[in-house]
Amino acid sequence: MSFLSPALLLGLLAAAIPPILHLMLRRKAVQVRFPALEFILRSNRKTARRFRFKQLMLMVVRSLLLALLAFALARPFLHHDADPAAVAADSGGTTVVVLDAGYPMGYALDGEALIDRARFLAETLLDDGNGMGALVVAGDRITTPFAEPTGDLAAVRRALEEVAVGHRADRLADGVARAYEMLEDAPPGGRRVVVLTTAAGAASDLPKPPPITGDAAIELVPVDVSEGRPTPNRAVLGVSLQPAPEMGSGHWRVDARVGNFGPDAIARLPVHVEVDGVPAVRGFLDLGPGEEGVKTFYVNVDQKEATPAAVVIEPDALPADDRRPFWLQPAPQMRVLAINGDPRPTPYRDELFYLERALSPTTAAGARVKLDITDVPTLQRRDLDDFDVVVLANAGELAPDRARALETFVRGGGGLLVSMGDQVKPATTNQLLGPLLPRTLRDVRQAGDAAASAEAGDRRAARPTYFERGHAILRSIPDPAGTSLGSAQIRRYMLLDPAADAGGEVVVGLDDGAPLLLTRTLDQGRVALLTTTLDRDWGDLPIRADFLPLLQQTLRYLTRVAELDSAPVVVGRPAPVPVEDPRVQRVRVRAPDGELRVVERPKSEEEPWQFEGTDAPGHYQVEPDPPLPGLVALPGFAVALDPAGADLRGPGAKAEDGEDVAAAGAGVATGVTKRTELWHAALFALFLLLLGEAALLFRKRGEDEVKPLPGRPA
């Protein structure tokens, strides 16, 4: 039994009012014995007992009157199972069947797919109904074979034969809302929406019927087509990909998240990584009831181009979610030209010693870097168009034509990293590279103050304390201040123009307010300025563990190489086009079925560049249109099923696995249910009690009348 207004049940406390009043108003009479009245009292004892009984019954009736009134106001009702055909046949009316065609309906229960069971139930509703009917299919899209309810139920049954399972699992609520719209102009009579779905779908938060009273009210009837039977399922819920330099060059770590949505534990579930259609690495995973686990694999990527891959588990009753695609995307090659402004014969004292180590293949597993080193005199003979990034490491005075060539290189889309050192003269550098630098240089500053120079110690070094976490360089470092970057000691650095309108975006700043790392966008290129050295002459930043990812991310930012995002896009949601190169204005996206679609770059920079046609799971390839020579390879993207649909269980099954029953919902209908209102019966019982009270009072008055003595007038 349920109540529409359970809070009104507090009115049941009013049933205690009559007994309380009786106890409060009861008075105990003083007994005075008169011998002359003793005979009369003996003859009246039987009448007194009957009188007290009637008084007690009157108090009980009045208590029940108050209790029934509160009970009726709470509007109680009962749910009971009914034949599905009876719902449609009851009083004729109009029935709209919402058929869930999401991918969970492909689950095979005893060899029969849930979509087939739902189709049979829908045909039963339409066969036995004598009113009007309509069909709403909630699959990849909301489709209605008929614009409005029709009396030609045979045509609706024929439309059921064309329903197929889609790839989405989030359209059921939209389908129910569409059914409400179809019933707005339905003829008089009963109006109901029957939803045929899984146990999880029937217990989900479906839209409530619109607030219409009277005969136009709409009844929502969710039906679990599995009839409450167990539907255990296993699914690959997610895949994450990251470099694994500890395993060697070209190795990647693949973390596969797998869920067990069933009441039984699973021992040694087979899991493997498939590369280009061939199993590459195999393993096993143990999962408890209702548990999720992560299996880690290490994969070596030797291919020069992106390779389709997937995490696959042993097939079960719902094979659609047993495979999750992703791309093994080799990092694009970055061509870096480093100008050594202070070469030394001792390796560890050389200006580029730490830069070379940071960009070596064993440490830069997330990026393939081709490093070319030269010095200032031989820079004249190098063609900058052969490189993606130029690094000026403590470079002294450049030839004017080389400075102009650098400006042309950057404005055309190249990247430039400038670091300081003893060879850098602020006035000369400002004159030659002023148009490129984020801010103009002033002078070299020794960290600390006069007291620090006398006391020595840490007060003679500045520390990085400001980190712009929203910048692309620091995006992959969750807490920069908590890493070794925050403990680096900078003894000397270059002061910059402090003007209020000074340009550049500060990425890392020192505790005294001076910038340490700045960036600037210039036309199609980018520039980064490090106010200290790349070696240990001015500080110990290069020997900090997090200097390596900081430098790598800086080069990625300068070359506009996007971070490898291995997370697949959910089916039906827009996928960002993974292109940052400003020269690319149009791309061709090849879907898993081979269909090509052209996507233009938005005219506004604030508008995201997205691909909308993610209708099917699989691998999508992205190609520049037209092809551009020397372009960094474009990564593709993968589309996968929504993992939220992998759990087909109803609230009862989830509670058995240890979940909170209250959070799971109030229960799932295992068939068509009807609601019987009880408040009408409560009001009728209230009327009968009022009649009973009147009868008791009438008889009481009749007995209390004083009868005249025989022979005397009344």
Characterization of this structure:
By secondary structure, the chain is an alpha+beta fold. It has 4 domains: 2-77 and 681-697, no CATH class; 83-230 and 653-671, von Willebrand factor, type A domain (Rossmann fold), CATH 3.40.50; 236-330 and 562-647, Immunoglobulins (Immunoglobulin-like); 334-559, Class I glutamine amidotransferase (GATase) domain (Rossmann fold, 3-Layer(aba) Sandwich), CATH 3.40.50.880. It is built from 15 helices and 34 strands. Strands 18-17-19-20-26-25-24-22 form an 8-stranded mixed beta sheet. A 5-stranded mixed beta sheet has the order 7-6-3-8-9, sandwiched between helices. It is elongated, with a radius of gyration of 40 Å. Mean pLDDT is 81; it is low at 450-457, 658-673 and 700-706.
Q: Tell me what portion of residues adopts beta-strand conformation.
A: 25-35%
The 3D shape can be described as: elongated
Count of individual helical segments: 15
Tell me the CATH architecture of the largest domain.
3-Layer(aba) Sandwich
The count of β-strands is 34
CATH superfamily of the largest domain: Class I glutamine amidotransferase (GATase) domain
Radius of gyration, rounded?
Answer: 40 Å
